[in-house]
Amino acid sequence: MMQLQRYTLPLLLVLVSTPAISADEARAYPRPVEPLYEEGDEQLSCRQLEQRLSHLESQSYSTKPGFYEDPYTGASIWIGSLWVPGALSYLGYSAIAEYRENDRLHHNQSRIEALRRMKANLRCHE
User: Fold this and answer.
1) Cα separation values, 45 from 21, 24, 56, 59, Å
2) How far apart are CA 120 and CA 75, in angstroms?
3) In the predicted model, what is the mean pLDDT of residues 55-78?
4) pLDDT cut 90: percent of the chain above it
5) Left (φ > 0), alpha (ψ -120 to 50) or beta: where does 5 sit?
6) What single DSSP character describes residue 59?
């Protein structure tokens, strides 16, 4: 019994340390990208819109490797299945990190869509 507690403690710490997700934030499937407008967007000029777009586009890339490309995933599965089952807790951490990364990317894409629509309405391309 002591062995079981020692190996499952890291996994329980990961699960307890994650914030609770409300019902409106709970989503299992991708959401469509909808424009996300913020207060004060209507006063922006074409140049300011372009600057914000370039800033957001530089933040719209993910550096987190996928499940099969992540070398730590393979290592945690290998070590967890052969020696220390607590190493499998990395899989939970990786899933939470990927969820948060996807949420951040979706927010950036929504802002980019809103700024592009505003830029089109102002006819900044002419």
Assistant:
1) 37, 34, 16, 21
2) 48
3) 91
4) 44
5) alpha
6) T
Mean pLDDT of 111-115: 93
Site of tokens 């899989």: 91
> Do 81 and 60 touch, CB atoms closer than 8 A?
no
In total, the chain counts a number of residues equal to 126
From residue 1, alpha-carbon distances to 8, 11, 38 in Å are: 11, 16, 54
Rounded to two decimals, the pTM is 0.68
Q: Which residues contact 70 (CB under 8 A, 6 or more apart)?
A: 64, 94
User: CA 63: distance to chain centroid?
Assistant: 10
